[in-house]
Amino acid sequence: MVARSSSFKIRALIFTAKALALLAAFVLPAGLLFQWCATRVDARRYPMPGVLIEIGGHRMHLDCRGQGSPTVLLDAGLGDTASTWALVQPHVAQFTRVCSFDRPGLGWSEQSSRPRDSQHVAEALEELLVQAHIAGPYILFGHSFGGYNQLIFQSLHPDQVVGMVLVDSSHPDQLRRLPGPSFEDYASDMRWKVLTAPFGLQRLEGWCRDDYTFPNAPLAWRQVAPAAMALDCRTSTFPATRDEFLAFRESGRQAAKVTTLHAMPLIVLSHDPQVGSGYPPNLDPQLEKQWDAMQEELRALSTNSKRVIARSSKHYVQCYRPELVIQAIQEVFAASQTGHTIAAATSEQ
Q1: 216 — phi, psi (to 5°)?
Q2: Are 293 and 323 spatial neighbours (Cβ–Cβ below 8 Å)?
Q3: 280-333, pLDDT tens digit by residue?
Q4: How far apart are CA 231 and CA 42, in angstroms?
Q5: What DSSP letter does each residue of 35-58 carry, written as one string?
Q6: Which residues are CB-neighbours of 301 under 8 A, at least 6 positions away?
Q7: Rounded to whole angstroms, how far apart are CA atoms 308 and 97?
Q8: Distances from the Cα of 63 to the Cαs of 74, 97, 122, in angstroms?
Q9: Which percentage of the chain shows pLDDT scores above 90?
Q10: I need a labelling partner for 74 at 20 to 30 A (CA). Which of 67, 311, 325, 332 fits?
Q11: Edge to edge, what strands does the sheet with 58-65 contain?
């Protein structure tokens, strides 16, 4: 009986080994082919706007529209692409030049071996603008993690930046003041997404679709969201996003060194605490109070600033309330042109 049991176990192991070999020989290549084909279909369905520009051994995506000065520079949130500005950029292009870009590995930009902290992001943006011959002055616009990047860029080029808009921007102290899973934990949880991305699992599981399916989002966003979802499904997205998560703490330390913007025109847009941010999930009222306080501290970076709380909007204010974003850019643009001050206040709109 013992010999027969051992023989059965050996046969079971052999069967398992053969099954795994078949999986590797057929299923995994099929996944690679599926992901490659789906990516090609997405590229035809949603053609790349703008151009790819060589930056230190890799190409970065830059999309500039309109004419005029100052130039508005749009930087998206962590793991996000220029597609999140779809409801904003065309309108801003009606009164000045406005440029969006994709950080390495995101959207249309190629992957890079450079570190992913805000200092390196700001330096890469500088190289991109030089190569594209996009001279200042600039108005900086940063959403979430993009706020870190734009604060650093301003500190590197204070003479070229004439205004700033921060949209539900990250705060240098938020990892300490907002308890919960660390960004390193988020990055660790992403390891299976990173490993399976080349095989198209993110498409089959709907991970990239879910990232931009916002609760109660307006119809205008739902109409343009498929392009953002398609870019999110690209193989390089999850590794690049994980690397930004891992660098987030260092990026916060870098942004903390920016203690004043003096009298530079600044508008801070924040999500509605009554509906919550939607990201990270399950922020309770106490945490919303902390976020509110940190947004006020960002507003206080400039003596020429105000804050607007966007009613009914979650974290992606540019998707829920694009008209407020456009209005904020117009106001900062006008202040940079005329020298008029921005009425200091915090209001709901």
Answers
A1: 60, 25
A2: no
A3: 545 567 788 899 999 999 999 999 999 999 999 999 999 999 999 999 999 999
A4: 8
A5: HHHHHHHHHHHSPPPSEEEEETTE
A6: 258, 259, 260, 261, 266
A7: 24
A8: 10, 10, 17
A9: 59
A10: 311
A11: 51-55, 58-65, 98-102, 71-75, 138-143, 161-167, 266-270, 305-309, 346-348
Give the 3-state secondary structure of residue 100: strand
* Residue 58, both tokens: 């890799």
pTM for the predicted model, two decimal places: 0.88
- List, in sequence order, the alpha helices (H) in 157-236: 174-177, 183-189, 191-196, 201-205, 207-211, 219-232
Amino acid symbol at 88? V
Q: Kindly list the structural domains of the chain, giving each domain's residue range(s) and its CATH number in brackets, ordered by start.
A: 45-348 (3.40.50.1820)
Residue matched to tokens 């939607």: 278
Look-up of token digits 């309770």:
284
Go through the chain and tell me how many residues it has.
349
Question: Residue 336 has which token pair?
Answer: 């940079």
State both tokens at 233. Answer: 């499904």
Contact 202, 238 (CB under 8 A): yes
